[in-house]
Specification:
Elements (H helix, E strand, L loop, with lengths): L2 E10 L3 H11 L4 E7 L4 E8 L2 E8 L5 H9 L2 E9 L2 H10 L10 E2 L5 E5 L9 E5 L4
Parallel strand pairs: 1-4, 5-8
Antiparallel strand pairs: 1-5, 2-3, 3-4, 6-7, 7-8
This protein binds zinc ion.
Zinc ion (ZN) binds next to strand 1 and strand 5.
Amino acid sequence: MEISHIEHIGIAVSNLSEAIIFYEKKLGLKCYNIEEVKDQKVKTAFFMVGQTKIELLESTEEDGPIGKFIEKKGQGIHHIAFAVKGIENILPELENNGIHLIDKSPRKGAEGLDIAFIHPKSTHGVLIEICEEKKK
Ligand code: ZN
């Protein structure tokens, strides 16, 4: 697999609007997109830092993945997303190499990306997302 750059860093927050105020007013970043991903029970806010984005994630339901994460570990870095090419070929390759995947095939994430998660069990403790922007 070839990773071109860090596409984004996902950060779990308990209050999205308060977190946006911090990133905008204190860090001077500009939120350019707010989007709900129903599938993952999250509301997301995006900031551009160079070619990498910061993705803030607020749970829309207590039993969603982000809600559970915050309950267990508190707010903080949730995942790192690497930009790749040919995600649908990479996933079976990883699986054949004994890597534990959360998503065996890509699904739609925020910002129209094709995304898949690799289980932290196989990555020395980090939830890794691989993602690809599909040109229409
Ligand atoms: Zn992500």
